[in-house]
Design goal:
- This protein is α/β, with parallel strands linked by helices and 575 residues long.
- The chain is built from 21 helices and 12 strands.
- The radius of gyration is 27 Å and the shape is globular.
- InterPro entries: HerA_C, P-loop_NTPase, T4SS_component.
- This is ATPase.
Length: 575
């Protein structure tokens, strides 16, 4: 380190950051205390899906850094998702005004600066704030993430998974909190005690604990976040008409008091994307870059299942073209298995005021490659808007560590006006789609009989749907109706498994049938079973009697099985 001259150190940085493809410009290097605008530090756009970490003490400029990166990603046609906890990222929709101080800074690092606006979509969890309401159904949120929100222990989490399993098997749609509450109340009632006993790992006492936690969630007003219409995470992948990536800004004005819900909801968005997106391999630029601010909230007190699910998602979603940047105070906030997946590092200043801070500083330094800097000194003396950077180059190797003065954003580093945000939300194409909550028939209505449509009896070999005793099943409507149901089931399986419209003629539901006017939507059948739909259609159409009943039972069983991902989530769409 001491043997290198300033020119040699500078040459190392210049060579390490000379890249061929499109890049995100981060700033200019500082070597031996001097700023060198000829030594530009940048991040390859193609490597953004290798994930990253933006860390640093409070007030060192982490939010401004992700602001600046989001602008350049949008300009490159890459959609961005970020959570606005403090409310100052809405300034992306407003062009910044220049000043002498700003010009001096941008000139010193070689930045050609001009005030700009960027295409921003404002979202709000459940409509809590100025933004398009974002909701998720309980069934798609899944038991692992919901357990995280309710702070259940491992045993209670396993029990909640059994409740979801019971609802899945019995065609009880879990849309909002009252649906889940109704299912648990049924299982703990005299009427449902037999079903409760069949769920061997679920005790009545544990079910009661979960029920009380649900009541607590409702008391906190969290029922607004669960319901329909469910937000389609594909909306995060949009580009503006001019080709720039849309920056989706999730407004969280009151979520400081509900940090667990906030962090867990972000993981639901990621999990849903993970389940829906196809494999993409290496791309010239990512499909989406996700910034998870206050990342430590994800991991504090997390269960082993939750941590494993995060690690799996981070490891595998790269190949689907999605990059994730965790934003937090120190690398120790992120578990080692996750930290090992983060190839791009932007480390702002750290403070070492306590022995614990000193340990964190040493741990942070140990995670960087060998460099020409005294990193302990550099990290404790770096100014606001400066960071120590190493990223993955186009060949997959780490770039030289560079103390960098970062570029300035071209939009307002602060909130946009409330009038602008409201007008942006009012003019959004998403408002008509998600603006008004709906309450479709689901588990609550079926179990309580309030406004429920008949659901019919269970197929042979299936457990009965609670609350439907005495109602005629589809098989009781006559052989013609049974034929119609078999054909409809075959069409549904073929379309959902094969991912294409069915080639079979649509079933004739004539005026003489007494089928329910609205059938509960069925979960998707397991992937990889495309021949099941063809087999069901062939057998159902060609054979009769017991074999037809067997095929019908097989189709219904497949239809009722929910595929759940690493978080126990379901990507089934009910819109």
């Amino acid at each position: 380190m001491a043997n290198k001259t300033t020119a040699e150190k500078l040459a190392t940085i210049q060579k390490g950051y000379t890249l061929e493809g499109a890049t995100i410009e981060l700033g200019a290097a500082i070597v031996d205390g001097e700023l060198h605008k000829e030594a530009q530090v940048r991040l390859p756009l193609a490597m953004m899906n290798r994930h990253g970490l933006v860390a640093g003490a409070t007030g060192t400029g982490k939010t401004v850094t992700l602001h600046m990166m989001a602008e350049q990603l949008s300009a490159a046609g890459v959609p961005v998702f970020l959570a606005d906890i403090k409310g100052d990222l809405s300034g992306l929709a407003t062009a910044a005004a220049g000043s002498d101080k700003l010009k001096a800074r941008t000139d010193s690092i070689g930045q050609v600066w001009a005030g700009k606006t960027f295409p921003v979509e404002f979202l709000a969890l459940g409509g809590d704030g100025n933004g398009i309401p974002v909701r998720a159904t309980i069934t798609s949120f899944g038991p692992i993430l919901l357990s995280r929100v309710m702070e259940l222990n491992d045993t209670q989490e396993s029990s909640l998974q059994l409740v979801f399993h019971f609802a899945d098997k019995n065609n009880l749609e879990l849309i909002d909190l009252k649906d889940l509450r109704a299912v648990i109340q049924f299982l703990t009632s005299d009427e449902g005690k037999d079903e409760l006993e069949e769920l061997g790992g679920l005790s009545k006492a544990t079910a009661g604990v979960i029920l009380r936690e649900l009541v607590n969630l409702e008391a906190q007003g969290l029922e607004r976040f669960f319901g329909e219409p469910e937000f389609d995470t594909a909306e995060l992948l949009r580009t503006a008409p001019d080709g720039r990536g849309v920056i989706t800004c999730l407004e969280l004005p009151t979520l400081q008091t509900k940090p667990m819900l906030f962090s867990t909801f972000l993981m639901w968005l990621l999990a849903d994307l993970f389940e829906d997106l196809p494999e993409a391999g290496d791309l010239d630029k990512p499909k989406l870059v996700f910034f998870l601010d206050e990342a430590h909230l994800l991991f504090n007190g997390a269960s082993k299942a939750f941590l494993n699910a995060i690690t799996t998602t981070v490891r595998l979603i790269r190949s689907k073209g999605v990059g994730i940047f965790f934003v937090t105070q120190t690398p120790k906030d992120v578990p080692a298995d996750v930290l090992g997946q983060l190839a791009n590092r932007i480390q702002h200043a750290l403070r070492a005021f306590t022995p614990e801070d000193a340990k964190a500083l040493k741990a942070t330094v140990s995670t960087f490659p060998m460099s020409d800097y005294d990193l302990e000194e550099t990290l404790t003396s770096a100014g606001i808007g400066e960071a120590v950077i190493t990223v993955m180059n186009e060949k997959g190797a780490p770039t030289p560590v560079a103390h960098t003065r970062l570029r300035a954003p071209e939009s307002v580093m602060g909130p946009s006006t409330e009038e602008l945000i409201k007008s942006t939300v009012g003019g959004s194409a998403l408002l008509a789609k998600y603006g008004t909550a709906v309450d479709n028939i689901s588990a609550y209505e079926k179990l309580t009989g309030k406004g429920a449509a008949p659901t019919g009896g269970a197929a042979p070999g299936e457990p009965p749907v609670p609350g439907t005793s005495g109602q005629p099943g589809p098989g009781q409507a006559g052989s013609d109706q049974a034929d119609v149901d078999v054909d409809a089931e075959a069409r549904r399986i073929e379309e959902e498994i094969l991912g294409r419209p069915s080639s079979r003629p649509a079933p004739d539901r004539g005026a003489g049938t007494d089928a329910p006017s609205r059938r509960a939507p069925e979960p998707a059948a397991p992937a990889g079973g495309g021949m099941v739909g063809d087999l069901a259609g062939a057998l159902g159409g060609a054979l009769g009697g017991g074999l037809k009943s067997m095929v019908r039972s097989l189709g219904t069983q497949l239809g009722r099985e929910l595929l759940r991902g690493v978080f126990g989530t379901s990507s089934r769409r009910r819109r």
